[in-house]
Amino acid sequence: MKPTVLIxxxxxxxxxxxxxxxxxxAAGDIIDVRSAGSKPAGYVHPLAVKAMAEIxxxxxxxxxxxxxxxxxxxxxxxxxxxxxxxxxxxIFPGQMQRHHWNFDDPAHATGTEDEQMAVxxxxxxxIRKVFEAYAAGLRFGKP
Length: 143
Description:
alpha/beta, Ptyr_pPase, 4 helices, 14% strand, Rossmann fold
């Protein structure tokens, strides 16, 4: 069974889904990648779905989930992508590693849809750099 990596943010509507999609594409063959939120928004932001489609990753089947769904699971690594989730994050049974990489929340972007998309693309690309590097490290070590 592949080790599970759980990516957390507060709303589980943008950043954690961007990271989940990117990490799954980069290392889904060696790890099970999931995401959740401490206060789930109840939806995946449509601009997050659009930004990921631009790089060939489909988030259409993703849903916003509460981290409680994972408390009874064996979680190998927890990665928080916002400060609030880092502070709200419980310790999971058997959890081996924890990382915190903070990214701006693109859901707070304002302006026209084009201006908002520019923020989603920037955050997506920042997340992509970090999580693809993390995935590369997993391939040379252990998750």
